[in-house]
Amino acid sequence: MATRKKTEYVSKAHSTKITASSRCAVKIKDNYYTIEASEERSITDSENVDINKEWALLFDSVNQVVDLQIEDIIKEFAKKR
Questions:
Q1: Is the confidence at residue 13, as pLDDT, over 90?
Q2: Could you give the angle at the alpha carbon of 37 between the alpha carbons of 35 and 74, nearest 5°?
Q3: Which residues, 6 or more positions from 22, have their beta carbon under 8 angstroms from its beta carbon?
């Protein structure tokens, strides 16, 4: 994780878009399965947005997609045994 540097300048920029990606690889026997999800969200009113909460919600969203896909792969493999 990046460390925060102390600086006297305070950014006046506002985020207008945030993008998150999540990827997971799982090996079942001799096969590898890789699942990836990505999502971009536009921020229309950056003045009234808690960007940290938006990031957390976005990462929760893409991580959930990947987690559910991995669960489905594992369940399908278990059925074939």
A1: no
A2: 30
A3: 36, 37, 38, 59, 62, 63, 65, 66
